Amino acid sequence: MAPVPISPIKVGHIDDVQELRKAKTMAIPARFVRNMAERPTMGSTIPSSMDIPVIDMSNLLKGSRNEVLKLAASCEEWGFFQVINHEIDISLLERIEKLSMEFFMLPLEEKKKYPMLPGTVQGYGQAFVFSEDQKLDWCNMFALGVEPQFIRNLKIWPTKPIKFSETIEEYSREIRKLCKSLLKYIAIGLCLKDGIFEEMFGVAVQAVRMNYYPPCPRPDLVLGLSPHSDGSALTVLQQGQGSSIGLQILKNNIWVPVQPAPNALVINIGDTLEVLTNGKYKSVEHRAVTHMEKDRLSIVTFYAPSYETELGPLPELVDETMPCKYRRYNHGEYSKHYITNKLQGKKTLEFAKIQSENST
């Protein structure tokens, strides 16, 4: 059975960022204003050498050893990469963007028909909110569990916009194929059996979340999404065409903006792969910032093992030079732990660390 998390605090109308935007006020409610140490530094220049790697999926599918090595280096050195030539029809990417935007542009009363339900992170609203004094992100979310079937709550699959739900189905099938394929080549790059992750994961858990970031009159005071790593094995991010550049990843203690390549998908390593690779590949802290004039849409798919799967570092990746850093645990337990804690860097991964280990 799926783990049952604690209910997040429900967010009221005054904290719906689209409604705040409609009010056309320059004032930012106190619940959104970050402490000085958390605020984004606006206008900083990042060297072009800090661009995240781009992986050509067509080369992987042709069996290119160089592309496999490039993928392995991207996972180890960055934990993030973009994928081009991923074989997902561009028209499908355009449709999912269009319908996602149409959903967010619905009247609030319509979106409230699909509230983020108690005990889940599915529905419309803000996730990971557990106290009245917790700072809120400048973002509206709509999330759905997709696979396996039992995690779906069909009551919150929208009837508007028309064809929204069936497009989510089609999109999620294509993203699932991509994740399986990427995990195969990630395994090859680690000198493991190519099907090791698919066999281990069972019926993989898959969820999709759409994030909408309206323009913010004071982007220097807020965050679109708090810094965190993902609890998944892989995360696939589609950034809306024409959106402001908002995704940033933490590398060498510098927040690096991700410049989206045309028609590319951004992939990142989640906590699960960090554990399985015994820290060789690390999940990376990332966040979203806002823009004063432009809005931003992102569509995020989380791909993770079955809740029943027992996880721990793979024996092939543990030796005297790389001793075991993480304990064995049930993925369902970790999933419950992850979604019942606020986003706070990589703090949730402490759940899996062997107690004597102070760092990864």
From TrEMBL:
Pfam assignment, any one: 2OG-FeII_Oxy
UniProt superkingdom: Eukaryota
Assigned keywords, A-Z: Dioxygenase, Iron, Metal-binding, Oxidoreductase
GO MF, any single term: metal ion binding
Signal sequence, start to end: none
SUPFAM superfamilies given in the database record: Clavaminate synthase-like
InterPro entries: DIOX_N, IPNS-like_FE2OG_OXY, IPNS-like_sf, Oxoglu/Fe-dep_dioxygenase_dom, Plant_2OG-oxidoreductases
Keyword Iron: yes
Segments forming domain Fe2OG dioxygenase: 204-305
Xref: Gene3D superfamilies: B-lactam Antibiotic, Isopenicillin N Synthase, Chain
Family: Belongs to the iron/ascorbate-dependent oxidoreductase family.
PANTHER family named in the record: OXOGLUTARATE/IRON-DEPENDENT DIOXYGENASE
Protein name: Non-hem dioxygenase N-terminal domain
Naturally occurring in which organism (per UniProt): Dillenia turbinata
Organism lineage: Eukaryota, Viridiplantae, Streptophyta, Embryophyta, Tracheophyta
